[in-house]
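Worked example 3. Consider a protein that binds copper (II) ion.
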Amino acid sequence: MASADLTHPNAIEPDEPQPWQRFFSFSVDHKVIGIQYLVTSFFFFLIGGALATAVRVELATPEVDFVSRELYNQLFTIHATVMIFLWIVPAGAGFGNYLIPLLIGAKDMAFPKLNAIAFWMIPPAGLLLISSFFVPNGAAASGWTSYPPLSLVNGQWGELIWILSVLLLGTSSILGGINFVTTILKMRIPGMTINDMPLFCWAMLAASILILLSTPVLAGALVLLCFDLMAGTTFFNPTGGGDPIVYQHMFWFYSHPAVYIMILPLFGAISEILPVHSRKPIFGYKAIAYSSIAISLLGLVVWAHHMFTSGTPAWLRMFFMIATMIIAVPTGIKVFGWLATIWGGKLRLNSAMLFAMGFVSMFVVGGLSGVMIASVPFDIHVHDTYFIVAHLHYVLFGGSVFGLYAALYHWFPKMIGRMLNEPWGKVHFVLTFVGFNLCFLPMHYLGLMGMPRRVAEYDPQFATINNLCSIGSYILAFSTIPFLINAVYSWVAGAKAPANPWNALTLEWTVASPPPEHNFVGQPVLKTGPYDYGVAKQGAVRKPISQLKASDILSGSTR
Amino acid sequence: MNVPSTILTLLMGIGLTLISLWAGQNYHLLLPVSATDVSSEVDRLFGAMLTIAAGLFVLVQGALIYAIVRFRQKPGDDTDGPPIRGNIPLEILWTAIPAIICLAIAVFSFDIYNSMGGLDPMASGAGSGMAHHHHGKNLAIAAPLDGSDNGALPAATQVALGLGAAPESQGKPPDLEVNVQGLQYAWIFNYPSLNGTVAGELHVPVGKDVQLNIAAMDVLHAFWIPQFRIKQDAIPGQPTQLRFRATKAGNYPIVCAELCGSFHGAMRTTILVQTPEEYDQWVASVMPAPESGETAANPAPALVATATRDLTDTEYLQSYSDRLGIEAQAIAQLTTPAAAQP
Ligand code: HEM
Ligand SMILES: [Cu+2]
Ligand SMILES: [Cu+2]
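Given these inputs, the predicted complex is written out as structure tokens:
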């Protein structure tokens, strides 16, 4: 069977355990920074989750009874902002930081200091945002989209803090993107062409391109919004001839790509995890790799599908409908490729694999509703309703969050040097899966039947189903407890992890768990391709994927 | 049991088709009553997409469940699976099929969008020069937010984007035009053809071609009638429109679908689709005396003055003012965003 060779020079004895203080320092080690990103973003995930639970408590009944209407709007605004900008985006960057140098055989990221600076922008930005609940008039309350003119007339201080915080987080994300692109393009070990690198690197490359091309536009929009808010300019304010629709274009020029910034890293992670636990090569390497790039480029020209009922002329509505539907094609290629990877394999149904398969299962639901809402006549009905809330949670929770959990279960042993507890992991998976579907599946129906989103009160005919959704959300909130216990306990006292607990073939598994300070001793040697399951024999000379011919692929031969 | 795999595949294909057709047939269970001539077209589109989605859903989930049962690692077996790296014909197939499906949905959607009046040059942004004439009298509703008329608003040359006339009535004026104003947190309906009658509920005769000229007084709102499957944002400084023909008499909710502030969830009213007799009765009961006709010429500034003179509307606004904790008259001041701040 295939397994990395542990007598090989990459594998060395683990260092003495390093002191925990380094996680609170301005460390420039990509592995420390990666863990800093992940722990920080998970902390904000818990805060965002608490806010979501408060929202669901309010919505358990049709009347406004748990919080005031003003506070309700602040709750869902900060919930979404935290989940997007402080959990999913930085958690993706966290895995990127930890894994990319290891996957490509580098000692660190291209710009270690820039890397640390990018991370250290996140905690202050996050704390600033949370603190805005306590300023006069409270936190921002115009939704994570922050459309003017409403965002200009809600509490001024909350809005200002929201803008500053998102600007900081966007800057951090740009710095990270520069680092990822440079590292992936310039620091691969000799012999690893771009067509031999693990698919996670392709996905991070695609996500980083999007970050670099679109985030500056968001920054521009927010700076102008800030002028309107604080200095009385009227870029977007119609009282002075400004145009609120221009803001929407600028916002979505970033924020549609942002949904791919949030999902592409997890597409990459899933493409690593499924082959390892199916004991089979990834199916259609090039198709999956290039579809990431296709998604990222197409993702730049679909933004106005968020504006089908806004001030959007008909020809633009039709253009963006067609462009959006085209994105479903590369997305479908990935999904079918993953299914074919699993098919006929020898599946190890551990927690990582369950979450990875859960990812495929749930993401598909969001992808299917995505194609539906790309259809203009149908979207006119469901836009800004609970149908959209359902869609976005199937892709962001069922997709990104399930993917992050899969990645955490898969790479925890490598990062921490200890194994997570499997039975607890499975309890966590079942609770998450059940709670998630109970909470979000019925929302499709609510939206179709006429319930708008972002409301604190609603037509009593929707009470029963909302109650069901709320119960689902409580299960979901509860589901984090087994994970937290498991992670904390295993970090301190879990079974020691060997260098390669999963018998995986990518380079990070050729070094100790956790890896030593500069990852590799000397120049690491590529002995197998990243997905050579079933073919790699020790000592065999591998043929790089880039040199495989179609006939090799069909016959399964790599030699 | 040893069934040849081709037969198994065939059986599964048939099962899949039946399930997806069954799901697609029942789409109306997931939707509210359909009350205009084109809303049932939108439903048909939804039904078609639901059929396809159900098939793909069952295919993917079925494959995952089958894999869990059939391909799980046997205890003690830690060998690898077969080294299959791809299959180019298969990959071409699963690229082509979604592409064809999406193309078909796009063509179908385009067609439905056209029958909804989305491509009417008057409303689609394609014929702004002509639209100027056509919409000339609606421009007053895109009043400047501070209530003054500075005439410099770009609205004066803009088309009202949104849904226009269905292909068969393109170029014909609608049977009834109503000016709709969204403000925090109410919809106000102004009937130019009824001497500027103002109402808090929308009355329309069944079977007639109705055009709504939509404006926003303060922030964004969105005008949505779920039973009509139509929605359009109300945008300050830019007129928008909807046009429909209700075919089913009844009362339906009008819902604000764009976050507009703390009472956004309460910004709802009713559309009454009435038989001609009921509608005429209502017209007779609200038609103001001719001397107030001047409000029709310039309804926006006179908005609340007119509204408060009318008894039923006073009651209507009163219900909002109770919840807002301010005088009904003070809603007049709500036309500027700053005044709406708590
Ligand atoms: C097959 C791929 C997808 C398609 C065709 C698609 C299509 C759409 C469309 C048309 C909308 C706008 C609907 C509306 O507001 O009326 C939308 C909303 C949204 N989508 Fe997707 N989507 C896809 C995948 C994703 C992914 C992968 C994510 C994130 C991981 C995502 C996240 C969102 C979010 C967050 C919104 C709501 C934004 C808001 O209004 O706050 N979507 N999607
Ligand atoms: Cu989008
Ligand atoms: Cu509203």
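Take a moment to read the result before moving on. Residues 218 and 337 of chain B are 5 Å apart (CA to CA). Chain B touches chain A through 102 residues (CB under 8 Å).
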